[in-house]
Amino acid sequence: MSLVQAKGLEKHYGRDVVLERLNFSVEPGEFVTIVGASGCGKTTFLKMMLGTESITRGQLLVEDKPIPGEPGPDRGVVFQKYSVLPHLTVLGNTLIAEELSRSKLLGKLFGSRRRQAREAALERLTEVGLENALDKYPHELSGGMQQRLAIAQALMMRPRILLLDEPFGALDPGIRQDMHELVTRLWREQQLTIFMITHDIDEAFALGTRVWVFDKWRDDPHAPEAYGATITYDLDVERNREDAPSQAKQIEEDMHS
Questions:
Q1: Which of the residues 11, 49, 111, 172 has an alpha carbon 20 to 30 A from that of 63?
Q2: Within 13 Å, how many C-alpha atoms sit on residue 204's CB side?
Q3: Measured between alpha carbons, how far is 1 from 83 in angstroms, rounded to an integer?
Q4: What is the reported pTM?
Q5: Neighbouring-strand partners of residue 7
Q6: Domains in the chain, please, with CATH?
Q7: How far apart, in Å, do the first and last CA atoms of the chain sit?
């Protein structure tokens, strides 16, 4: 059974059509990378997956059930801008997700529940290589370390689906390569299903088992907002890894034509 499905999925803002006619089926464990021109609805789609954007038309299903209209523990998210709280330590930033989830009124855990949450946070931080930085504050961390912390936050609740919105766009090339290796390892070890937006086509083919291109396939010059983007390419990279360079080049040419 598919994990995530879209059937005729659309997103409109008034008369402005952002996304239209999205139809897909994603199996558990796939790593879907998403590329496309700026403003074509990639982040809007990720927000619909997260539950912070409503659906205008069609269906978006997880295990054949409509996706909840709010974020949940089954879907973790990491943005390009580091989503860490400056007044909390590395450990505190990782703990807070579970504290807010389990103690909505106080936002704080006590006794055995806090000890269990702390053990889980230590495990997540060890997984991302921050076990020696527990008492540091975000301003004391490099960009790569801050993004490792954001990934630990996203994985704290053990989600099945991880949503990544250009998570490495602000990092230097050497650090990006380290982050590629980290995310690939976590994806395999934790059997995650990942949807990742990137502006780098080479990165999309290097990381993804499947590459989507969001673009408008129909246009009206007299009514530019009448039609939205859809998935114009859906490439199975895992089965055709040797063709990836030529496919990436073709997509880049199409996006700039």
A1: 11
A2: 30
A3: 33
A4: 0.89
A5: 59
A6: 1-74+159-257 (3.40.50.300), 84-158 (no CATH)
A7: 38
Task: Write down the pLDDT at residue 107.
Answer: 56
pLDDT of residue 222: 73
Q: How many CA atoms lie within 13 A of 137 on its CB side?
A: 5
Q: How many CB atoms lie within 10 A of CB 220?
A: 10
Q: Please tell me the distance from the alpha carbon of residue 145 to that of residue 164, in angstroms, as a whole number.
A: 16
| Bridge-based pairing state of the strands 31-36 and 230-236 | unpaired
Q: Do 21 and 10 touch, CB atoms closer than 8 A?
A: yes
Q: Is there a contact between 147 and 121 (Cβ–Cβ < 8 Å)?
A: no
- Angle subtended by helix axes 173-189 and 143-155, to nearest 10: 20
| Alpha-carbon torsion angle 188, 191, 171, 37, nearest 10 | 120
Tell me the backbone φ, ψ of residue 103, rounded to 5 degrees.
Answer: -135, 75
DSSP character string of 59-72:
EEEETTEEPPSS--
Of the candidates 223, 220, 197, the residue with the CA atom closest to the CA atom of residue 208: 197
For residues 214 and 39, the answer to whether their CB atoms sit within 8 Å is no
